Amino acid sequence: MERRHILYAGAALAAAGAGATWAWRRAQPQAMSADVMARFWNLTLDTPQGQRLALGGFRGKPLLVNFWATWCPPCIEELPMLNDFYRQNSAKGWQIIGIAVDQVAPVQAFLRRLPLDFPVVLSGMEGLTLSQEFGNQARGLPFTVLVGADGVILNRKIGKLSEADLAQWRELG
Questions:
Q1: Cβ atoms of residues 118 and 82 within 8 Å
Q2: For the chain: N or C, fewer Cβ within 10 A?
């Protein structure tokens, strides 16, 4: 009887370990195809103000691309920190673009409450597909990509950024 319990416990631990490993790998940014940045630079998206913004205009300087939504609490929590980072570093050449995976009305209402100094564009749910092309297989939000001045992706993170993340990324860019 005891041996059977040991076998069951061992099987349960193995299954739990496999499940945890699968979940961890699913949440990690995955490799992406070489032409992702070329497609990104060719995009033109709508702003909440009804204008069009060509993303190719962001080439040549360090860029944080932040995928967020008004319905995502960690996204909303990190936006003031990103705005502060932008204010402190834009004169040094840093850029941020917020890609709202959302509809225009909620984004407009949010930006009236918390104006951001960096540009925001609207992607709707297609933004999750774009973030997936950047390696976000879990399609989780927030998702942030650090693009170097040379257009090479230097880092990516699924989940809320920290001050430490931004300090480390500032050194990379």
A1: yes
A2: N
